[in-house]
Amino acid sequence: MSTSDSSWRQIALCAWGSQYLAGGNELDDWFRHGVFWEAPQLFRSLPGRTLIAADFCAWLFWLRSRGAMRLTLHATESGQVPAGEDFYWGERLICVHFAEGCERWLTGEEIPGCTDANDAALEAAREASGEWSWVPDPGAYAGDIETWWCLGMGEAISVPETDWSASAARLQAELFPEDGLRGRWRLPDQTELRAGNKGDAEWSSLPTLPHSRSLTLPHRLLDYLHGEQARFSNDTHPKNEGNLYVCASAEEAARIDHWGERLDAWVDTLQRAAANERRWREGGKGGSMLMPALPDATVSAAQQDAASVPVTETNPPSAPRVIEQPAAQARAITPLLIDGIVLAVLCVLIVALAKVLSRYEWISLLIALPWMLYVRRRQ
């Protein structure tokens, strides 16, 4: 499985879309995501090829109005591909979970319904004129279109939660079993994966997965594997004069290929696991996800704590929650008090230094000598 723009787009759609269906965010928070800029997404019904939604926002709003609970991403199996359809089907399948079952959406290519009629008309025109004329296919000059086809409702499926710590341990043990290679195992410190983001503007630069301080391993593992795939592609590229295959025997080349296949398999597995993750909320307690704040959209810590208070008999949902806010005057005095303390400390230090220099004049040489050496070196 390649880490193409399409695969990152599918991961972001499931991860952010599931949070939207569960009420964890709103479309206004992330519809501007740059990962969706590269290609439009169409959603059609397979019977009759009816257009249901022309973008992912309309599709998610339609699913939410029908009572959809979450989205999960799966690998396409041979039995799930519709028979009798003559166009290319993708490698990913989205399952929309409802209370009564699971609705399956399979990615495939977009084919206009008038293609056969156009071909027949061109053939008739050639026969009538007796001349051959070539008409270019306009689809070759158009941008990519990612189409999702609804295959209908099926039985409900269970998607288990991922143990990310155990997955990281298995990944290290499988890909880097030798002691000499374990030194390469170092997860990146950053906790925001931004793969596949094509947005040029700062307001469109959002993480590929929702960001949570309590769940950073999906970001770090996928970012690490993304870098390993790029390194492997560079080390095995034919144009690289020092690629791994130059002096490799047949057995060594097979081992290199096998390692690359295992790396791709891990990327595919963890991509789908991250897309199906639901525990992006802080500590799993229902708090809001961490997203780039828009102007006038900041939430205080007291409001977040109040929002996470469970509904009990002593705290019914209809009872107003009183949030104690600090007075504006107290907030204004605090910076002034700090500035006053800093100023007083600086004054005391200056007076103390002056008294020391008046008693021990030779200390001034220790202060002037470094400055003189610095000036001389600059000259």
Structure, described:
There is one protein chain. This protein is an alpha+beta fold. The protein has 10 helices and 6 strands. Strands 2-1-6-5-4-3 form a 6-stranded mixed β-sheet. A hairpin with a 4-residue loop joins strand 4 (89-97) and strand 5. The longest helix has 32 residues, at 328-359.
N→C terminal distance: 59 Å
Low-confidence stretches: 282-330
Question: Over the alpha carbons, how many angstroms does the gyration radius reach?
Answer: 30 Å
Query: How would a crystallographer describe the biggest sheet?
Result: 6 strands, mixed
Number of domains in the coordinates? 2
Oligomeric status of the shown chains? single chain
Question: How much of the sequence is in beta strands?
Answer: 5-15%
Average pLDDT over all residues = 75
Write down the overall geometry.
elongated
Count up the helices. Answer: 10
Helical content stands at 40-55%
Number of strands: 6
Look at the helices and sheets and give the structural class: alpha+beta
Spatial strand sequence of the major β-sheet:
2-1-6-5-4-3
- List the secondary-structure elements in sequence, H or E: HHEEHEEEHEHHHHHH
